[in-house]
Amino acid sequence: MLGLEHFEILVRYPDRFSVKYFEVVGLRSQVFKELEAMWGNRKPLNKAGVRNVTLLTVVKPLFQFVKKLPAYTAQTRRLSDEAVGVLQALKRDQEPDELVFTSLPQACGLPAITTGKAEDTTTAKTLRGKLVEALREIQTAYDCLLNDCQAQLYEAFGIRSPETRLREDLRVRASYISGQCLERILKSFARAAADESKSDRQWLEALVMIVADKPAESWTDADATGFEMKLSDIARRFKNLEALQKEVAAKGEGFEARRITVTRPDGEETHRMVWVEHESEDKIEALVEDILQNSLVRDNPQLQQALVAKLTERVLGAVSQENIAQMQEKRQTRKPEEDKISVNRSQN
Questions:
Q1: Secondary element (H or E) of residue 255
Q2: Per-residue pLDDT for 217 more than 70?
Q3: Among 8, 120, 139, 147, which residue is least crowded by beta carbons within 10 Å?
Q4: Following DSSP, what letter does each residue of 37-82 receive, concatenated?
């Protein structure tokens, strides 16, 4: 209700005030009743002395709803067109009557509710149903994101038990490697996976944050897309270290282990566990130093890496006999052409 203090400000600064009148009759009245029913009995908004009680009952909860959304939900486009339209309408700074009678109906695929339209219970109920569905989709967008991340974790770590056992499976596996892992991100992931002090939701959010290096609540859609790639890298290193620890435990003391994976251009992969006896380390180190001091590869990182690749393929059998035969055949088919070119050059 307007008081004396309001009128004093009005007289002093009339340019700061404006008066707007709109009728709530016909279809508009029905829309108000349907939207007001969405929130149930909200007594704090219906207290005596509040202006435009019905309007506040409808609009204020909508604005409060948007303010409480995570940053991810406020910007994501991973929603239906109607949900995106409703969210954008609620985020825009606009008059309450324009929001209720124009922006929200249009976002829900309905025409604007004008004062000249007669009562129509079907339209009012349709608007309410569409708006409720859109708000529900908006409200659960962040939960859907976490559920999707959980499903990706389940898939990336090759867990065979039911998805509800994801946490217990990772906790047990992470407890075996957490004390051996020194790499920062993998170490943090293993510790978070083995943590039993958090709730299931907090545990999942902690893992997701470590993988993406950013809290999921503040993700963009690009972060959500990149999560799968980052998770794949961490899962691969986790499983490699896991396999290494199992082999070391089975082999016993006196050895150091390395797990080597070679991926060829055709997609074929070779995995080998390589053991280095402590007694042989000095001899191997001296041999490596001699090779790297060779004039062909010394001070040439590219050739050094090529040498490592060729040695790995040769020693670990990364190149199958079939592939070797194919490479030799290609070389033989190229020789006549090369000879012909050589002859032509010599004649010229």
A1: strand 255-263
A2: yes
A3: 8
A4: HHT---GGGG-TT-SSHHHHHHHHHHHHHHHTS-HHHHH---S-HH
